[in-house]
Amino acid sequence: MKGALGFIGVFLSFLFACVNSSDNCRLICDYCDSYGQPTMDCLSHLLSDYCLLKFKNAMASHNSTNWCIWGNVSGLYSSLSNCTEELSDCLLIPWPNPLVEQTFVDIHTSFFKDCPTEELSDPPPLIVFVLVITPICLIPVMVSIVVLKTKNGDGSS
Known about the structure:
2 domains, disordered N terminus, DNA polymerase, domain 1, RAMP, elongated, signal
């Protein structure tokens, strides 16, 4: 029986192995070891209880109208990305992974859904007007040319 327990201990230490012996990784791995769940479940809890909590608190300290200004949130976003990468690295989980990707989809849905993007924004009204009016004006001109050519009996061209 003692041999089986030793094997389980070795197996669990493999599940929660750390990539290095840094203090942060040791704390993360000890948490997951005491948590007793598979590594992805532990990562999920760490992401929500640690990385996302820090990100949400930092975003709450900014006015929501400033969330769409990249200069105001780039540091917070980078910190969140670094946090997810560090947790994944410590738990020997490839990064990015589906859990991390879903985390970023969720924060984009929560915080950045109303932010305009440069690529998808409408052009200025004057440009829209010119683009709409040009074909509208060309149609009568083209019809007039066709009618004049046909009236003069010059059907060949």
